Amino acid sequence: MKISQIMTPTVVTIDPDASLLQAARLMKDHDFGWLPVVVDQKVLGVVSDRDIAVRTVSMGLNPQTFGVQQAMSPNVAWCRLDDSVETAASLMKDRSVRRLLVVDGQNRLIGVLSLGDLASRVDGGNLGGAVLSSICS
After folding, report:
1. pLDDT tens across 68-122, in order?
2. Measured between alpha carbons, how far is 24 from 56 in angstroms, rounded to an integer?
3. Which of 25, 116, 131, 133 is deepest in the core (most CB within 10 A)?
4. pLDDT tens digits, residue range 49-67?
5. Domain map of the chain by residue range?
6. CB within 8 Å of 137: residues ≥ 6 apart
C-alpha cells in the first residue's frame, strides 16, 4: 500500500514570518499541535505548541512579536507520495515521530501521514500500534 492511499491531503500551514501568537491561534482553531512552516509549497520546518511554550513563553519572550521562523524545528521528517506504508512506518520509528509530511517529486508539500492514518487505515491498526509502541518505549 502506498502513502497516497492513506495520507491526509489537506494541510494547514503557516508562513515563517508569522508571529507565534498567529501560529497558536491557528493551532487552536484547527485543533492541531503543530504546523508546517511553508513558503511556495516548500517546507522550511515545523512549529509545535511545545516549541511555542519552551522556546518563547518559558523564556519570557512575547509570542506576539517572536516569529515562527525563530522557534520552528528545521529538521523535518518527511516521506514521498509513492513510498510504501511500511517505509513510512519504519521512518516514523527511526525518527520517533507521530507524523510525516508528504512531499511530491519536486519536494512540494502535498499532505501529511499521521499515526492515526496508519492506525485507522492499515492492517487493522496493528502497524500503527507497533509504531506507537516503538516511539513510546
Report:
1. 999 999 989 999 989 998 899 899 889 988 889 999 989 899 999 988 887 776 6
2. 12
3. 131
4. 999 988 888 888 788 888 9
5. 3-136
6. none
